[in-house]
Amino acid sequence: MKEQIKKVALVTGAASGIGRACAEILLKNDIAVVGMSRRSEMETVPEGDFSYVSGDVGEAQDRARFVQTALDTYGRIDILINVAGVAPKVRADLLEMTEESYDYVMNINTKGMLFLTQAAANEMIKNEGDNKGVIVNISSLSAYTSSVNRGEYCISKAGVSMITQLFADRLAEYGIMVNEIRPGIIATDMTSKVQGKYDALIEGGLLPIKRWGTPEDVAAAVYTLCSGALPYMTGQSIDIDGGFHIRRL
């Protein structure tokens, strides 16, 4: 019997929130994980076959080091979960948004994701077999929802949606499935700064499912895509948002 090769996943933003939850669910299912975030170290390391790289996905040398760590440690890459993302440092009206803020958000959320996906995909293509890899991009309901006080964030997430479409198209011939998850209002460090605003909106009926989402809600969908349960789906967006996307009267 041919020995089954352990799968290896790259997860960005792995130190907290959605990235941490994704790393944990993969580890629990016997997938090795190499995680990266901008934090110098993780406060607690998840249990399992886990390695950590401190780096910024917006920096080319950090992306290269991240990929090389996986190759040096395991010799392959099977899964890429693109989670890392930032909000504007200051929420400013669209008419006052600065180029500095735009560049900061786009560099991490969109450019960094694009070129990390390119690097990982070129390694996945080398894998044997018909199903060479899985890529999951975490975007946001902001990919299609206007927030005029953080336009750069909305634009960056709309870009993630097109990155997903492009790579899904390009990589299908290699058996690499590329899909996108659009989280809604998820309880993370990023949303903690506006908790009162969203508490009121949820209580007021913004969501059919009247609660905050959790990182684990998103991670469950990520694992479904990584598990091979949906082998005939690529280039798709999945809304994990409590029903926010439903148009209601």
Task: Describe the structure in brief.
The chain is an alpha/beta fold and 249 residues long.
List the keywords.
249 residues; alpha/beta; Rossmann fold; seven-stranded parallel sheet; 7 helices; 7 strands; 40% helix; 15% strand; globular
Q: How would you describe this protein?
A:
- The chain has 249 residues and is of the alpha/beta class.
- It has a single domain, classed as NAD(P)-binding Rossmann-like Domain (Rossmann fold), CATH 3.40.50.720.
- The protein contains seven helices and seven strands.
- It has helices at 17-28, 60-74, 99-124, 151-171, 189-192, 195-203, 215-226; strands at residues 8-12, 32-37, 50-54, 79-82, 133-138, 176-183, 237-240.
- Strands 3-2-1-4-5-6-7 form a seven-stranded parallel β-sheet, with helices on both faces.
- Helix 3 (99-124) runs parallel beside helix 4 (151-171).
- It is globular and about 50 Å long.
- The model has no long low-confidence stretch (mean pLDDT 95).
